Structure formats: C-alpha cells, structure tokens
Amino acid sequence: MKDSLRDLNITELSTMEEDSGLDIMYLNKHRHSSSTSSSAPERENDGFNKRKLRITMQDYPRKSGQILSGQYGINLLLLGFAFMLGVSYHGHSIKEKHLVSYITTLMLMQLLWMLWYIVRKDRQKHALPEKDAHAGTSWLRGGLTILAMLSLIMDAFRIGKYVGYKACLSSALVVYPVVHAIHTISQVYFLWFHIKDVIKTFETFERFGVIHAVFTNLLLWCSGAMTESQNVLDAHKKRLSALGFMNYTYESHEPYCNCTTKACSMFSNSLYYLYPFNIEYHIIVSAMLFVMWKNIGRTIEHHQHHIKKKPVAKTAGLVAGPILGFVALAGTIGVLVVYLIQVEATLETRTWAIHMFYQHGIVLMGSMFIASTLGLIIYRTDSWPQDSSKNPSRQLDKELLCGSAIGSWIMSWCGVVAAVASHSEPSYRWTNLAYSLLLVLEKYFQNLFIVESLYLKQEDEEEGSAREVEEGVERSGEAGMSSSRIFSVTSSSTQVPPYDGIINQAFVTQEKMCISLDGSQVKNSHLYQYQCQTPQDSPPLPAVSRTAAALNRKRQILRNIAVFLVLCNSALWLLPAFGCRPQYDNGLEQETFGFAIWTMVLNFAMPLNLFYRMHSVASLFEVFCHV
Amino acid sequence: MKDSLRDLNITELSTMEEDSGLDIMYLNKHRHSSSTSSSAPERENDGFNKRKLRITMQDYPRKSGQILSGQYGINLLLLGFAFMLGVSYHGHSIKEKHLVSYITTLMLMQLLWMLWYIVRKDRQKHALPEKDAHAGTSWLRGGLTILAMLSLIMDAFRIGKYVGYKACLSSALVVYPVVHAIHTISQVYFLWFHIKDVIKTFETFERFGVIHAVFTNLLLWCSGAMTESQNVLDAHKKRLSALGFMNYTYESHEPYCNCTTKACSMFSNSLYYLYPFNIEYHIIVSAMLFVMWKNIGRTIEHHQHHIKKKPVAKTAGLVAGPILGFVALAGTIGVLVVYLIQVEATLETRTWAIHMFYQHGIVLMGSMFIASTLGLIIYRTDSWPQDSSKNPSRQLDKELLCGSAIGSWIMSWCGVVAAVASHSEPSYRWTNLAYSLLLVLEKYFQNLFIVESLYLKQEDEEEGSAREVEEGVERSGEAGMSSSRIFSVTSSSTQVPPYDGIINQAFVTQEKMCISLDGSQVKNSHLYQYQCQTPQDSPPLPAVSRTAAALNRKRQILRNIAVFLVLCNSALWLLPAFGCRPQYDNGLEQETFGFAIWTMVLNFAMPLNLFYRMHSVASLFEVFCHV
C-alpha cells in the first residue's frame, strides 16, 4: 500500500511540474531541510530528486526549442517569399530557376532529415513509440495519398515539358520535378508511419527538422498558389482582349524556343488542371506536420479503443443529406461547364453567365446556411455532452477554419462595398450583393457548427464509458481494486477512463485523489464515494434509453447535415479551382478598387478560399465520423 | 471538519469541470443511482448538483462565445479594410468620408458599450471584482496616457484643418476627430480602471463588447498606418522628382479649395509628425483589450503582493547599459537629422546618407546582437528558476513579438536577395547586405532573450516565498491550520502560495490534497509531510546566500542589457517613424522587385516594424522590472 501511494505521488508531482510550472528549482534548493525534519528514508528522496532534476534539464531547451525553431521556419519561408516576389516582377535579376533551386535545396534537406528519422526509429523498434491518436486520421492520410499521386503525375508532366523545351530551359527546372517526386513519395511514407509519433528524444533537433518540413511544404503551397494565380490572371487577360475589352498584348510566360516534341502544349494545359490538387496536398501536409511539431515533448496517454467503431450504424438514416448534396454537386458542375463556355463567347452571354453563377450561389449558400443553423439549433435544444480535453489537432482545425475564412470574407466585403458604391448598373449588381452577404453568413455559421461539433463528446466514447460503468459496478466489491486503478493511469492498462489520446490533468488528479483517500480509509467515506464514483459507478437508468433514442435521431439529422455540407463545400472548391472566378469577370470590384489593388486582393484571398473549402470538407468529414 | 471537506471538494470539482472538460452532463445523467447507492444526505447532493447545472449552462455559451465574437470582430475589420482599399485607389466610388463615417460609427458603438459597462460596474461596487494582476501594468497605462494626449492634440489639429477647408470638406471629417477625442478620453479612463477586470457576468454580451473595442482600435491602427504610408510615399515621390529621377506630377491629396485660415499648412505638417504616436496608441490598446477578452470567464486568484517592490535595488549597478544606450540614442538622432537633410540635397549626398545609415545600423545591430547573446549565455550558465504558469498577457506578448518581427524580416530578406542579385553597383550594396543579415539575427536573438526573460521567475516572488516559508515554520505547530489553509485557496486570505495572478490548477490540487490527507489523519504521515511541505516548510540554507550574491550580480548584468536594448529599440523606432526610410531611397530593392511590388511590401511591413520596435520596448521594460 505504502509503495503504491509513493508511486502515485511521484507520478503526480512530476506531471504537475511538467505541465503547470511548479517551481522545480525551488523544490531542489530547499529539499535538505525537509529531509531532516521528516524521517523519510534518504534513498526515496534521492530517487525523487533525480527525477525532478532530469525534468528541469529537459524542460529548459524545450521552451526555447519552440521559439528557436519557429523563428527559423518563418525566416525560411520569408526568404522564399522574397524570391517569389522577385519572380512575379518578371525582372532581370530573379528568375524562376533561382526560386526553384532554393525550394529544391529545402526539399533535399527535408529528405535528409526524414531519412535520419526513419532509420533511427527503425533501429529502436523494440521501444513502443508514443502516439497521438488524434493526429492524421487514416482517411485523411488516404485522401492525401490520392493528392500525392496527382502531384506525381504533375511532376511527370513537368519533366515532359522540360524535355520539349530543353534547349532554352535551365537544368534547375528538371532537377526540381525529380526531387519533388522523391520528396512526395518519401513524405507520404513518413505521414503513413510516423505522423502520430510523439517525439521525446533529441527534441530540439527534431523540432528543427519538423518545422523545416512544415515551412518547406508551406513554401511549396505559396509558390504553387502564385503560379496558379498567374495562370488565372493570364487566362482572364486573354479573355478580355478576345472580347475587345482591353488593349492587351499577351505576354507569354512560355519559354522562348520551339518545342521539340509534340506534347508540349498538352503538358502545359494539363498542368493547369493538376495545380489545384498539388496545392491542396502541400497545405494539408504542412498542417499535419505542424500538429506533429506541437506534439513534440507532450505527455500523451497511449491506449487503444476497446470498442470497435460501427460504420454500419453511421450510414443508417443517411438519405436527405447525400441526395441533396449530390444534387448540389451535379448542379454546380453544370454551372461550371456552362460558365466556362459562356463567359468567353459574347458580351451578352458573359453577363448572363455571371448572373447565373450568382443565382446558383445564392441558392447554394442559402441552403448551406439553413443546414448549419439547423445543426446549431439541434445543439441548443438538448444538453450535449462536451469534450474539452486538450487536443492540438482540434485547436489547429479551429484556428485554420477561422483564419482561412478571412480570404473569402475580404472578397465578400469588397463585393458588398463595390455593389453598393458602384456607378454602373449591371444586371448582377444586387445578386452580387446578396451572394456576398450570404457567403459571409454561411461561413460564420458553418464554422460555428463545425467547431461545436468537434467539441462534442464522441458517441463511441459515451457507449464505452457506459459499458465501463457496468463493469465497474460488477467489480466494485473487489478488494485491491484501488491499487490496480492507480497504475491504469500511468501505464497502458486495460481499464481506462473514457477520454482518449491525451492526459486530462485534472481528471487524472481527481481520480488519483479518490483512490488515495480510499486506500487510506478516510472517514466520511460516503461523501468521497459520491465524489469519486460519479463518472464511473452508476448503472444506466431506464429513462436514459428513451432519451438515447431521441438523441440517436438527432445524431442522424446531424450526420445528414454533415454529409450535405461536405458535398456542398466540395462543389464550392471545384468552382474556383477549375477557373470559374466571377470575381475577375464581373467588373464591379475592379471599378471600385482598380485593377491592381483588386488583383492583389484576389491573389491573397483566392488561395485561402480554396484552402478553406478543402479544409472544411476534411473537418466536416471528421464531424460526420464524430457525431 | 466535515463541512470544510465538503467545501473543498465542491470547489475542486467545479474548477475541474470548468477548466479541463470533465463530462458534466454525464455526471448529471447518472447522479440518481449514486445517491441511492450511497447514504449521503439528499440536501447536500442537491446543492452540489445545482452548482453543476449552473456550470453546464454557463459553460456552453462561453465556448461558442469565443468563436461567435471572434468572427464578428474579424468581419468588422474586414469591412473597414474593404473601405480602406477603396480609399487608397482614389477612385470615384469610395471617398475618405465613407471610411471615416464607418469608423465613427464603430467608435460610437464602443462608447455606448463602455458607458454601459462602467455604469454597471459602479453600481456593483460592493462586489469585489476579480482582477488579473498581469494585465496592463501601471507603467504601460502611463505610457498610453501620454500617447493618448498626443492623439488628442492631433484631433485638435484635424479640427483646425477642417475649419480652414470647411467649404470643400464633408462634415464627416469634423465629426470624426470630435468623436475620436471623446473616444480617446473614455478609453483611457476605461483602461485605467477596468482593464484588469475579469468579466464573469453577461459573458457572451461582454465578449462582443470587448472584441468590438479590440477591432475598432485595430481598424484605427490600420487606417492610420495606411495614411502614414501614403504620406511617406508622397514625400518620397516629391523628393525623387526634385532630384530629377522621375517625371512625376505631384497629385495633391489636399482639399480642392483655398484655406480660409493661416494655419492650414502648419496643421497638415504637424499631423505628419503626430501620426506615429497615434498609431502606436491604437495598436497597444487593442493588444491590452485582447488580453481582457481572453480573460473573460477565467478563474483568477485575487491576492495582493505583500512584499513591496524595491525600486532602489533595481537601479543599483545600472551604469554600462544606460550609458551605452543613451550614446546609441543620441547617435541615432544625429543620423536621423543628417539623413533627412542630406537625402534631399544632391545625388551624391543622397548616396552618402544611405551609406551612413547602413554603417550606423550595422554598429547598432551588432551591439544589440551581442547584448542579447550575452543575456542568453547568462541564462545558460546557471539554472534559473522558471515560471510557466498560465498567463495570457505573456503568451500574447510572445506571439506579437514573433508575429510583428515578420514585417522587418521580409524587408531584410528582400534586401538580401536584392543586394545579391542586383546588376547595379552602388557603394552601399554590401553594407545593405550586412545590415539586412544582422537585422535578421538581431531580431532572432532579441526575441529569444525577451521570451526567456519573461518566463523567468520574478525576484520578488522568490523572496516572497522565502519569507512565507519562515512564517509557515513558526506557525506549523498551531492546531486547526489545515482548515484555515483550505479557505486560503478559495478566498483572498493573507497566506497565499508564491504564484501570483492566476490559479495554478496542479498546485492548488496538490495543496488541497495534502490538507485533506492531514485532516483525515492518514498513516505514513512522514511521506505526506515531505510531499506537501516541500514548497513551503524549509528554512533557507546558508549556502544559498553565496549563490544568491552571484545570482544578484548576474541579474544586474541582465538589467543593464535590458536598459540598453530598450534605448536601442526606441532609437530604431524613431528612425522610420520620422521619415528615415532608406528602403524607399536606396533603389536596390526597387530594381529587383519593381516599384509596385516593393511599395506593397513596404506598406505591409513598415507598420509592423514600427509596432515591433514599440512592443519590444514595452516587453524589455517588463523584462527590466521582472529580472
């Protein structure tokens, strides 16, 4: 008993020290006096103090490690950004080959680090690595693999294009796709087998490695987004000059020599359609790696889910959501095709196409707004169990959703201002206004819906805890239970509380405290029993099953909403990703803000908007699995 | 005894529920069974459950409140940003009066909210409000008051300018400075008396109020920064055309009518020099209000410092830092004056002035880099006690430092790229390169130094805890101490642990646990005494005083470094704030990136850089008080 209590207290103190900044040095300084005043054995104290010292030494570089590596990463990106600015000027000093060489160097450095990491991990196979269950779900990695494959095709096309224009292109432009392909393959391997790792050794060095990977991918995203914006702008200018709107001499960004193969134009055109996937691949990878970076040195509880997930139950009752969603998706693809054809034809069809786009958008935004609001109302009608344990993935999801929504919001507000202030009177003036306002509302409520859903306690967890409750009641009479419980917190025992992934400090402390009180036979035991057993030791009530059925119906509705929103957001990703960007074509904003400023706004906002849609699809899919 | 134990546990559970996501609904659902199985009095359970229910109801809107209000604030800013873009285009649709009217409306809304808040607080004077000791230190508020006064002078000048041009200016342009003056006065009052408040009532509404204030000030900052950039750009263009560099027809942004008073040009010119202060005022206010927003609904321990701060000891040994700092400041002011005169004279003096600027910069950056590194080495040579308790002010300080450094870093990296890639060969080409690289390093290490210093445990706290230790030993024999200790955690008793400001969850739990174990006469008491008394019950050792003297010397060096860096950063704020911006004049970056892109970069980076310097001055002053 005494031993188990000592163990409990040491674990407790050390976790406290790590997470909440108890002054460890202070403890060390004054320990002698307490050991003389108390009659505790010296040996015990020594072990205790060694443990504390080790934590102190580890704690210091960790704190600095974050800011050291974070600043390094930012500067890596900013140097790349400076190159990008130089390239986008099309001046004499900075050429594409300089940017590409810089990115290639970064990718090679990342490759070296990943190799080192993987080899080292393979050697330590006997040691059970700590994992964060929340990082990089398997469906996310699956989706990424598809995007990575499309990126590989893109690399192949790039190499093909280089072969055609070999005479006048720098060799950096063929090294880049080759290194990028190797980088993509190794990175996908890394994501599959190591993204959940919680790094505990060489922390400062690993921080640099991971943040290097994060910012390399972020730079690849920036550079891809810049190239794509350039492509779209060129297409827009070509269209305008074809319609006779502007006196525009088309500057070709193609190389200044003849293609030696027949496939050059095919490669160039296909690249245009593959860019969106490549861009999304890099931004999602960098978000996942960022979570890995945040996890370095964290205290993670590794335990397995004992309750198998039931995918069958998830799809039951899924009717309205998928049907409406697919209708929206099909309609959007129709609109996309019609828009792309009509906007290039005549001035009249152009106006009509833009008008159609806004009307379609209003219907879509309206229904998405209604769906999100319905979900929020459902959350308000009932008291849903909430899970607010620490979870860096979820925190990042939330911040990324609100952060990337800024792109779309700034476009919307510019649209609102332009529609109200405009002196011209195109037919789509007021539909543009309505569309912009609905877009703001839709994002506002969709974000709210996603965030509230992610903070919901998972159905599995509830069932799991209910099952554990029953088990707990059966075993409640057994002796010695308290001591086995003590170890269930620190080691990965079979009986674990219903929170998963990460240690919940307060919960752990509470549980331990109850046990130590039990173990030392405290008086007023009825009170303690009440306090301690509430989370685990009460059998389900008969009334609960009725409310459970109602809850289940509500969960079905929520799942339908999530599926509908997934499909709508995919549709809204498709539109701008494949060139349907009326923000360029409608002329209202251009009149109010001028071509230069408006293009600058779009170059900033469009990539963010695309990322928002992709990210909200991923988050909503998680909501679907979660509810 | 029983009562006190119950109190302890209720407090404990409720804080756990609030902060760490224990499943409260789950507790509610299953409470009946536990009350039937245990023999506890029903009355006690009822009170307990009511408390839990209340927490559930409060907890839900709080979670959503953050994201609801945060999104509202972002959209407020983005709409203002859309207006700003329209104004900066100088088109026909959006005029300055539109932007100014929008900002005036926001300020009036903020005034209404502040009035409501102050009146309500005054009525509840009997209730002791909770305060966050870390938010808005008095010297920060003092500094802000000076900035606010300069803003008031600026408002007076604006009104004066309006009077002169009354014939051709919109009345919105006189309403704005009047409302701004009222807004400034009320806001300073609010900051003095309410910025430390921890809001616990009407949380969702208050969140909207505070975030509205945050984003109103942020918008005022953005709008001020935009106007200032415009001024600097105009001055630059005027200079260039005077030197015969460009064929530039000076577009006046002055009103198109004659001034009816004699003071118009005086007002216009003075406004130019007052802008920097006004801009800094708004950004610092918005950072302070943001901390207030983060504090809404937090659990804060209110206790007073019993140990008076000794300002005398702080200034002892302060020689090298201030002297070197004032030399740097005086030198910088000299450089500023010479630069402003020489850059407008002839082409030759212009080149010479830029060269001088970079040489001065290299010396300054080099010494700041050495000072920061010295500080970091001192931290590495000894194990300094660290304080990592939760503290939103400090967290925000850290993020703002790294975030605003981006502005300066992007300029530096562009400078590096331009210096390397340039085809022209001005005399300052390589000094520009060295200056840019040193700037990156200086910010990198200065940030590291500031952040590590802020995470240091304060000297006062250490002394305070040592004194408390002695008091604790004297009283340790008294009976009934345990129960008095219990209340010292929840009420503001005289005896408090050495962490200040915010409840340290783990610490509190630990202390409570020890007491409850004492109270219930546990066996193995020597072990518990050791565990519980380590932080408090050991008298200082004789050896400590020797190391304390060494530590004190090191603290003196650190204080000198902090003062030196404060003065250097002030100097580096002065330079760009008063028009010494060689980034416009040197021509290297303009050659590499083009005028449009480079101006865009400067418009983004310059305000951030100014904010960085001001913010690092504030942070370093805090470091000085802290060490």
From TrEMBL, chains A, B:
It is found in: Cell membrane. One of its GO terms (molecular function) is proton channel activity. It is a multi-pass membrane protein. Keywords: Cell membrane, Hydrogen ion transport, Ion channel, Ion transport, Membrane, Transmembrane, Transmembrane helix, Transport. Its main location: membrane. The chain crosses the membrane at residues 67-87, 99-119, 139-157, 169-192, 279-296, 317-341, 361-379, 557-575, 595-612. GO terms for cellular component: plasma membrane. GO terms for biological process: inner ear morphogenesis. Belongs to the otopetrin family. This is Otopetrin 1. It comes from Albula goreensis.
